[in-house]
Amino acid sequence: MLDNYNKQQEFNVNILKPVQNEILAIESEIRKIDLQELKEKEILEEKEAQEKFKHEKSDIEAKLYQALDKIYKKIPQEAHDVGMKSDVALKTYKPELVGVAKRLEWQIGELDSITEPYQLNSFKERLERQVD
Fold first, then answer.
1. What is the pLDDT of residue 33?
2. Where in the sequence is the domain holding 107, given as residue range(s)?
3. CA 62 → CA 58, 73, 78, 96, distances in Å?
């Protein structure tokens, strides 16, 4: 019995312990790799979210400028011919659109100050409520 106990202890120390240490080292390396992959995935997701944010902001800005451009295109050519500034011509020839133009200009300015996706979502919701 003592001989079996000694053989088991020798097995544990000489064979089992080095294998367990190697397994622990491998597990540690796997955790490092997994952590690195997770960090890379988070960085990639952040870049994709930022690109999406920039694209959405750019699309909204383009739509606002298009709407403003449509308003200013309603100014008769004669106003441009005599050298009237656009805002004066708009007040003179299309006074009902002055408020809309000012609101669009204000919204464009507000959009320029947006830096975070949640701010952009809130801005889009306000735009949708104004359209409805």
1. 97
2. 2-131
3. 6, 16, 27, 23
Give whole-number Cα distances, 41 to 32, 47, 57, 73, 99, in Å: 14, 10, 24, 47, 47
Q: DSSP 3-state assignment of 117?
A: helix
Tokens of 71: 């308003």
Cα–Cα distance for residue pair 72/36, rounded to 1 Å: 54
Per the structure, how many domains does the chain have? Answer: 1
pLDDT in tens, 45-99: 999 999 999 999 999 999 999 999 999 888 888 887 788 888 888 888 888 888 8
How confident is the prediction for the chain on average, in pLDDT? 91
Euclidean distance between CA atoms 111 and 105, whole angstroms: 10
